[in-house]
């Protein structure tokens, strides 16, 4: 079986501490102990597109032998298991949002999946943690390194709204 390197964005603005910890817990559970899960720092940022509590965001990477459609299904199942409902407005509060950002160097656009995710190029809360985790990774569409893309985006005014936080990963309830 071939192994694939996957990057996912994780965000929450409802009980952020709880749901960020749960997301990481369930990712490790869903993709196995051999997935080599790695995490970026956690960032706090204002809600984009609506009035609401601040989001906590990070990027995780892991290895899987699953095809991208199956990865996406598992991510959506984790969201659903943690109270996310797909019938909500696009820009609204959410317990958990997990987006497939990159799957190896593949470019996939179908009804069920879009990789690389457009948000990588648009939002500091996606690109900054991705740059922390994989600065030398080459984006499959732009053919630029993630750190080069971050340097360009960080010069825009909204990038300053990111705040790296000292996230408490310990929770006795898990």
What does this structure look like?
This protein is α+β, with helices and mostly antiparallel strands. About 30% of the residues lie in helices and about 20% in strands. The chain has five helices and eight strands. Strand 6 (about 110) and strand 7 (about 115) form a beta hairpin. The chain is globular. It starts with a strand and ends in a 9-residue tail after the last strand. The model has no long low-confidence stretch (mean pLDDT about 90).
List keywords for this structure.
174 residues, six-stranded antiparallel sheet, 30% helix, alpha+beta, two-stranded antiparallel ribbon, globular
Number of strands: 8
Average residue pLDDT: 89
Structural class of the secondary structure composition?
Answer: alpha+beta
Strand and helix order:
EHEEEHEEEHHHE
User: How far apart lie the N and C ends?
Assistant: 31 Å
Major beta-sheet overview: 6 strands, antiparallel
Helical element count?
A: 5
Summarize the structure.
This protein is of the alpha+beta class. The protein has helices at residues 16-31, 68-81, 119-122, 124-133, 146-154; strands at 4-12, 38-39, 42-45, 55-64, 97-103, 108-109, 114-115, 163-165. The termini are far apart.
Architecture blueprint of SSEs:
Layout lengths: L3 E9 L3 H16 L6 E2 L2 E4 L9 E10 L3 H14 L15 E7 L4 E2 L4 E2 L3 H4 L1 H10 L12 H9 L8 E3 L9
Antiparallel strand pairs: 1-4, 1-5, 2-4, 3-4, 3-8, 6-7
Helix pairs in contact: 1-2, 4-5
């Amino acid at each position: 079986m071939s192994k694939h390197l996957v990057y996912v964005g994780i965000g929450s603005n409802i009980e952020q501490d709880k749901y960020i910890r749960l997301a990481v817990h369930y990712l490790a559970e869903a993709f196995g102990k051999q997935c080599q899960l790695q995490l970026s720092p956690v960032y706090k940022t204002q809600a984009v597109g609506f009035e609401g509590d601040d989001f906590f965001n990070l990027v995780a990477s892991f290895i899987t032998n699953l095809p991208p459609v199956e990865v996406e299904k598992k991510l959506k199942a984790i969201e659903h298991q943690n109270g996310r409902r797909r019938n909500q407005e696009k820009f609204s509060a959410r317990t958990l949002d997990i987006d497939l950002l990159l799957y190896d160097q593949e470019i996939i656009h179908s009804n069920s999946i879009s990789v690389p995710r457009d948000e990588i190029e648009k939002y500091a809360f996606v690109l900054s943690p991705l740059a922390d985790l994989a600065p030398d990774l080459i984006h499959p569409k732009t053919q630029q390194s993630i750190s080069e893309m971050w340097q360009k985006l960080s010069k825009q005014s909204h990038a300053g709204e990111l705040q790296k936080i000292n996230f408490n990963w310990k929770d006795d309830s898990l």
